[in-house]
Amino acid sequence: MGQYWYILSLGNDEILYCGKLEEFMWNNEADCLVELFAVPVKPSLSCETKPGYDNLEIEPLPTKANLTPTCKIQSRLTSIPDELLLEVFRHLDIVSCFRLSLVSKRLWSIGWPFFRHKITEFMGTWAGVRTICLGDDCEPSDLPAGLLTTEEEDAVNEGLDSDEENSDGDSFSGKGNLLDIARCRFRKPKFLEEHYRMFYRPVPGEDEDLLFSGRSQTWRLPRTLLSEARHLPKSELSQVYRFASGNKVTDYYPKAESWYLRNLTTTEFVQGDRLYAAFHRSRPPSGPHLGYPGFGEAIMCRICWSTCSLLGIPFAGLNRGAWAGHRLEICTEKYHASNSNDTWKDVTSEIVHEISVVLELQVQTAKRKRIEDP
Question: What is the pTM of this model?
Fold first, then answer.
């Protein structure tokens, strides 16, 4: 039957289920890793309000009994400088930030850019964090040297409580291994929680969250927040609806720059343009999404770890990934140039070879299936 694989972000206590490795890598599903490792370029924040927004007057939201507000309430916020208001927004969660922006024109001029800025807090959360993809046939004691911190080793040695179970309802008891603990205690990456959902339907307990659609690579606002924004003036409301109808994640990735995959642990890097050129004749796409194969497949070729070898994959060491447990990130060429030196090693050619071997296996498997099932 083969083994099933799980990617662990140890510093974040997050887990991503991959299923069968060959399916995850061959169906372009590994491309979802880009948002987890790519460092976004955050929109600039300005503490200057727009002309005419200096006099803060809060207009009550329309109600069914009074659709046209007739009174204006003077707020103490009128005496707070813009710099302090920015600090207020900085300490709010993303939903509260959006709601405070709805209070007045002045708060909108400050809060709406901050709201879009806060979105980047969900992006690139695995960048620079220890990452490993474990197969469920991995022996408890068979882990890369130095993978775990002292606290994590203590947790593994202590094992799980007798009543703990994972999201599938599987229970474990006694001394557990790292994967058992992760399946019970780690959470799914919030950025990808909508990855396999094709249509938006409000989910109990998630209706207040900002939702991300992995298939369309867009952010979406829950309907409750959209309804609260309906009282906004036409110009401001149009900004909300443009965002709600599809604020592309790629807007936060500079399109005019080349992108690199970097291993911060070993100071190695992969050039995105060269990786793409090895498998395609066309010009590389803008941003870190290179298509198939891309950075996701490059990462998977090097972070997998299991005691059991990968039967049928003629690539020695794929189950003993050279980057298993290392700190990775995807960044722009400009960022790499300013945050590296001559000691960094270009391993693009090595990665291209490893991906080529996996792709060749895909072709051989497809041919064999056509022969066996004509």
Answer: 0.78
